[in-house]
Write the structure tokens for this entry.
Amino acid sequence: MSDKLTTFLGDSPARVIVKLLVISFVVGVLLSYFNFTPYEIWLAVKEFFVRLWELGFDAIGKVGQYLLAGALVVVPVFFILRFMKLGR
């Protein structure tokens, strides 16, 4: 069982916990530096979804526009990288 857990986590559970604690501390310090609190982040996420809900079908069109704009950049870069890797 521990082998499956270690494989899933990518390292021993103790090391993963230590890594997560260190990263959590660093992120907490950065959030404190920029005067963000977890409550403010929660409110921002909640407000985003409330606005998305209130926009209704217009929001779906906006998401589609964002998706299309991103795809116009990401898809060609993906194919260029794939073709470059194919040549190796």
